[in-house]
Amino acid sequence: MRTGKGKMRNRRRIQRRGPCVIYNEDIGIIKVIRNIPGITLLSISKLNVLWLAPGGHVGRFCIWTESAFRKLDDLYGTWRKAAVLKADYNLPMHKMTNTDLSRILTSQDIQKALHAPIKKVKRSELKKNQLKNLKIMMRLNPYAKTAKRNAILRQAAKETKTVKKVVRKRQIKKKSVKEEVAAK
């Protein structure tokens, strides 16, 4: 049974793919195999990647008839001769003559051409916020130290002024309270 809503859309049952039988001529092979569930029949002249590797999974079990296997050379050719049944078709050549990649990379010729490995790792400089870090701000703006000192002095002067004002008001209130008490 299929999971999900496909059951309601006339796709109730699903079946896994079984082996694939590839033939050249039909000598009754279709009638013999067509009723076996899961087995797919493919003609050699109509080969399809979607049937040979369903779902992109390479490695489906394929059963080849002898005549189909012989026809492969005529259909696709070899590396030495072109295909007979296809016009101007040659099998793609290998990109590498030697496929032992680890041996190639460790060979002396390749190692001579490569740069030496960088052993000392250079760390990137840590970005610091100049508004919070005075040293960095001094590097950007030398007047910043004087400006900050002036701002601190102005703030301190303002605070002392407000403190004096508050003290004066309290003294005036105390005097007026004492006078009221004395008057009663």
Automatic annotation (TrEMBL):
Protein family membership: Belongs to the universal ribosomal protein uL4 family.
InterPro entries hit by this protein: Ribos_uL4_C_dom, Ribosomal_uL4, Ribosomal_uL4_dom_sf, Ribosomal_uL4_euk/arch
Transmembrane annotation, as ranges: none
Protein name, entry field: 60S ribosomal L4
Sequence ranges assigned to domain Large ribosomal subunit protein uL4 C-terminal in this UniProt record: 88-160
GO BP term (any one): translation
Gene Ontology CC entries for this record: ribonucleoprotein complex; ribosome
Keywords: Ribonucleoprotein, Ribosomal protein
GO molecular function, one term: structural constituent of ribosome
Superkingdom assignment: Eukaryota
